[in-house]
Design brief:
transmembrane; 287 residues; alpha+beta; 2 domains; transmembrane helix; Alpha-Beta Plaits; two-stranded antiparallel ribbon; elongated
Length: 287
């Protein structure tokens, strides 16, 4: 389904580590039992040695006890060493298993399952992080992107076709970005792009042009149907003395201004100087 996803953490799968821990505890019990046996043998030997013996020599019945004690010590040591190695190996596997589960949950919490793109939470986090690293005279740009007439695709061709369109759009957006830039799916047919280290407004505008040119290529469905797609893109540029809230509001407002004009356009990045919510006076560039 290409509806908005719940970004909360998914329920964890039933743990497979409990049986492993139970086995480990059973082995620990064996070690404890062996130690108790050794302690009993040593106590018997000590009690026997406390009695006076004729000629100062050990009585014959103590020699088997000493032999049994020596064998028990040797066997117990070998068993303890073996079980300890097994326990350490299982604890190590348990650690790796939990690490993989945590990594999986963290990825699911910060990524959209349909497109594989970062989600809204990840985008907001990265925007705040990169904003703090922004130096004087540097800029970053945010592009808010919304699909035009996407609901018609769902209604006419079904949700499977809509999912296909979203995945293709995500792939094309990702392919148009530099290594340090970020594209995320905010939900539904809304995407956002974060451009870092922007020197000129024209750089952000060029990215918008490239995206709109790329989207002129229809999306091909499994049955051969070709669906033309257009996007509404709002562009906002920010400087280090601004705030991320203002930047996001400007990009969102710019995108909706274009949406109200019928879509298929992107707004000039000069709009970042205007007050959020005020209709732009500059012309929009056609897709």
């Amino acid at each position: 389904m290409n509806i908005d996803r719940d970004d909360s953490l998914p329920a964890a799968a039933p743990s497979r580590t409990l049986p492993t821990l139970r086995k480990s505890f059973h082995r620990i019990h064996l070690i404890i039992a062996a130690v108790a046996l050794l302690a009993g043998l040593i106590s018997l030997l000590a009690m026997a040695l406390e009695k006076p013996h004729q000629g100062g020599q050990l009585p014959f019945y103590l020699w088997p006890l000493l032999l049994l004690l020596s064998v028990a010590l040797l066997v117990s040591g070998l068993i303890a060493s073996f079980l300890t190695r097994r326990l350490n190996a299982e604890l190590e596997r348990w650690h790796h298993h939990l690490t993989r589960e945590n990594d999986t949950l963290a990825h699911q919490a910060l990524h959209d399952p349909l497109t594989g793109l970062p989600n809204r939470a990840a985008f907001t986090y990265q925007l705040e992080k990169r904003w703090l690293d922004l130096r004087e005279r540097q800029r970053i740009a945010v592009l808010f992107i919304d699909g035009n007439r996407f609901k018609e695709v769902n209604d006419r061709f079904g949700h499977a076709a809509g999912d296909r369109v979203l995945r293709v759009v995500a792939q094309r957006l990702r392919a148009r970005l530099r290594k340090d830039d970020l594209v995320a799916r905010l939900g539904g047919d809304e995407f956002a792009i974060l451009l870092t280290s922007i020197d000129r407004e024209e750089q952000a505008a060029q990215v918008a042009r490239d995206i709109t040119a790329e989207m002129r290529q229809p999306v091909k469905l499994g049955d051969g149907t070709r669906l033309p797609q257009t996007l509404s893109i709002g562009v906002a540029l920010g400087k280090h003395h601004q705030s991320t809230e203002v930047l996001l509001a400007q990009a969102d407002s710019a995108m909706y201004q274009i949406k109200q004009r019928g879509g298929g356009w992107f707004l000039s990045p000069s709009f970042w100087e205007l007050t959020p919510g005020v209709p732009p006076e500059r012309e929009a560039a056609p897709c």
